[in-house]
Structures are given as structure tokens and as C-alpha cells.
Write a structure and sequence with these properties.
There is one protein chain. By secondary structure, the chain is mainly α. It has 8 helices and no strands. α6 packs across α7. It is globular and about 50 Å long. It starts with a helix and ends with a helix. About 7% of the residues have low confidence.
């Protein structure tokens, strides 16, 4: 598979992962561009290996960029609501969840983003991050439990979050 095809097929999901880590669209675009340039230099033609390489590169570079924090930009789509009050509440909840996810340890955060936001399977995450599938499940479980502890006081009755 040619690099242009790989780019078209995976740019959106890679961009979503990167933006969620660095929280800055400009930095995310730079990281993504660098990842694809490195892929082109390596001449990896196998789609699965290329995608795995791209995710590892993007996640690694995003982690490094993360420590050079710049002001956040609004890169996440807004929630459509019926009233201004609901809009304020939804925005507050969205910000609370994003802050809670930021507090997670790095590996747990990446696995949670890949599973819950991007829809990767445990097996896919395992292959991409080169860790055992059981480890992916354990880290995801820990991430959800930690988020539950952080967010439970804010959620009415706490039962909604337990269903994740």
C-alpha cells in the first residue's frame, strides 16, 4: 500500500489521538506530519506495520510535546444542546472529563483514548503498543476505575459512569 493511501485512510484517527494527548491542533499537525515523513523514509509498505509504526511514533512524539505545554485550543467538537443552561452543563462536564483523563498515568491514558474515543479493540491496542492483550485490559480497567473515583462525586448517583 502506498503512503498516500495510508495517509488518507488513517490521518483522521491519528489526528484525533494526537490532539487528545497534546491538546493543541497545531502541535498535533506537526507531530502527524513528522510521523508520516519518518514512515516514508522507512519504506514500510505493509499497511498493518505502517499503521502500528505511525501510532507508536505519534504517541511517542505527543508524549514529548506534552511537557512543552502551550495554551489549549478548542479542537473537540461541541455538544449540540437545546438550551443555554444545558450547553453550560455539558461544557463543564466535558472539561471535567478531559481534566480527569489528563490526570491518568501515560499508558492508561493512551489505552483509554484508543479504546473509548477511537474504538480500537484490545487486540489492536496490544499489537500497536507491543504489550500483551491482558495488560491492555488491566490498564484500561485501572483507568476507568481511576476516572470513576475522580468523577463520581460530580455524577448524579454515580451509576451512569459504572456502565462504561
Amino acid at each position: 500500500m502506498e503512503i498516500e493511501e495510508i495517509y488518507e485512510k488513517y490521518k483522521k484517527v491519528l489526528m484525533n489521538i494526537t490532539v487528545r494527548i497534546v491538546q493543541n491542533k497545531s502541535d498535533a499537525e506537526d507531530i502527524l506530519q513528522t510521523a508520516f515523513l519518518r514512515l516514508a523514509q522507512r519504506h514500510i509498505k505493509n499497511e498493518k506495520k505502517a499503521f502500528s509504526y505511525l501510532v507508536k511514533t505519534v504517541v511517542g512524539r505527543a508524549k514529548n510535546k506534552r511537557y512543552r505545554k502551550r495554551p489549549q485550543d478548542d479542537t473537540h467538537p461541541e455538544i449540540i444542546v437545546l438550551s443555554p443552561e444545558q450547553n453550560v452543563l455539558n461544557q463543564e462536564l466535558k472539561e471535567m472529563i478531559e481534566k480527569a483523563v489528563e490526570k491518568l498515568p501515560y499508558k492508561e491514558r493512551i489505552i483509554l483514548i484508543m479504546k473509548k474515543y477511537e474504538g480500537f479493540s484490545h487486540k489492536e491496542i496490544s499489537e500497536i503498543l507491543n504489550i500483551k492483550e491482558g495488560t491492555v485490559r488491566v490498564l484500561l480497567y485501572r483507568a476507568v476505575r481511576k476516572l470513576e473515583k475522580i468523577l463520581l462525586p460530580y455524577i448524579k448517583g454515580g451509576e451512569e459512569w459504572k456502565r462504561i
